[in-house]
Amino acid sequence: MRTLRMIAVGALLHAKQLSRSPFEIATALIVPVVQATLAVYLFRAGGEPGRLLEAAVGAGLMGVWSSVLFGSGGAIQGQRWQGTLEMIMLAPRPPALMILPITLATALTGTYAMLATLLWGRVLYGIPLNFAHPVLFLVAVPGCVLGLGMFGLLLASTFVLMRNANALTNTLEYPIWLVSGMLVPLTVLPGWTGPIAAALPTTWGARAVREAATGGPVWPSLGICLAISLGCLAVGALMMTYVERRARAAATLALA
User: What is the per-residue pLDDT across 62-81, written as a single tens digit (0 to 9) for each?
Assistant: First the structure.
């Protein structure tokens, strides 16, 4: 219970810190709306107006993923700039438990992207929010967010070593949401992307949310998403311990 309380308090604290950043606020307000607008026009141009709800949901998932990816890297970099990264790593807790609240906080703030894209599509484009499984949708979205937060821990373990985490995040954003099928169906992608997509929790989380919105078996996809995310959490914890020791040995933890 103490560990869960520490994670909850830490996630709330970092969420408050993110809400004080003008850059984070501007990004959270603008990017999801732009992505939703592009998705709606793409689906309309493709002669698929009946899939506009799916487009709005996919754009929302893209916003959640962007928040997790850039938030995880930016939070680690921010702790380094503020001179608090050393204190986090010296805390009498495993490094993974100290970084996990940061990744969860970025995922929680990313839920705004889902709400913004759905409301934007409803108000401006008249997209009917007729969810096939409304209750399961309310379960699938938090499950997907939790899974992405744990996946963010695996990514954050590399950000501890990197002086400029943005160099990695900029290259991962679009390939991951593309190969995860958040907006483009996996069937139209090359065959070699199939194994990559199957190994990513983002793929199964996006499928669970989409099936809750448009119809389909939600629980299998959500279960696979959480199972892979737990694996990412375990691997991320091991990597975090390794890179933290390596950064200490090389005296690179505080370098910016």
Answer: 888 887 877 776 667 777 77
